[in-house]
């Protein structure tokens, strides 16, 4: 039986039965960038018993302003391997399934066949993100999807809502249009910011891995997105949402 003595403060807040629900749950995190890496940390520290972490990327120097695995000493190393080691150091008894590969629309079905109890979509490229949302929705999988975190500086503007109720988020707007073509109008839970992104911070990339552009980022905004997404999962799994 798992030693949960280190979760005594969590047990005081949630109670033994709700804590057991977390210990018996499997949470999948897709993407370990600024949002996903912090979400994974908070999920692990909540006592979730099984985690699947997915990302094929390595640490780049530009990641250091916002991503948990990114340090001066980890440049060029696998994000999933760094996070797996860190999560195991937090809870040696957590079961961690590591998928060290890029998330593509062709791989989504195989990934979802792992049947998590809940998933956090922290994918930052539109094509695989759309594929995940569509397939997770069709499977009736419980999930929360992170919308655009870039170009913003005010963490108090974050909200949890159905995607149909989002505003001031270009990513959410684009996804809504795409989802409507597949008769999906609502029923997608998201974390989004009502703060308009700064258009002057938009930069263009080389287009690799379905990503053609990105906004500048502030250290604490993606982390806050990750914290809110993790809270949605924890509250939902324990019946506190």
UniProtKB/TrEMBL annotation:
One Pfam family hit: ThiF
InterPro entries: ThiF/MoeB/HesA, ThiF_NAD_FAD-bd, Ubiquitin-activating_enz
Cited CDD domains: YgdL_like
Ranges of residues in domain THIF-type NAD/FAD binding fold: 13-239
UniProt superkingdom: Bacteria
Stated name of the protein: tRNA threonylcarbamoyladenosine dehydratase
Native source organism of the sequence: Olivibacter ginsenosidimutans
């Amino acid at each position: 039986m798992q030693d949960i003595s280190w979760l005594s403060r969590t047990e005081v807040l949630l109670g033994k039965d709700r804590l057991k629900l977390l210990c018996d749950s499997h949470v999948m995190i897709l993407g370990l960038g600024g949002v996903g890496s912090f979400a994974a940390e908070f999920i692990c520290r909540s006592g979730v018993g099984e985690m699947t972490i997915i990302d094929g990327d390595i640490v780049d120097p530009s990641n250091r302003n916002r991503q948990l695995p990114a340090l001066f000493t980890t440049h060029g190393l696998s994000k999933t391997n760094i996070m797996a080691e860190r999560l195991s150091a937090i809870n040696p008894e957590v079961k961690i399934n590591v998928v060290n590969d890029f998330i593509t629309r062709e791989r989504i079905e195989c990934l979802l066949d792992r049947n998590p109890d809940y998933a956090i979509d922290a994918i930052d490229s539109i094509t695989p993100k759309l594929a995940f949302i569509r397939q997770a929705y069709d499977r009736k999988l419980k999930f929360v999807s992170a919308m655009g975190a870039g170009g913003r500086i005010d963490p108090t503007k974050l909200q949890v809502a159905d995607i149909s109720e989002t505003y001031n988020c270009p990513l959410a707007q684009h996804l809504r249009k795409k989802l409507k073509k597949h008769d999906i109008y609502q029923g997608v839970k998201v974390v989004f910011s009502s703060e308009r992104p700064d258009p002057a911070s938009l930069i263009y990339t080389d287009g690799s891995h379905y990503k053609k552009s990105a906004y500048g980022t502030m250290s604490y905004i993606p982390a806050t997105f990750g914290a809110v997404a993790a809270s949605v999962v924890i509250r939902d799994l324990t019946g506190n949402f």
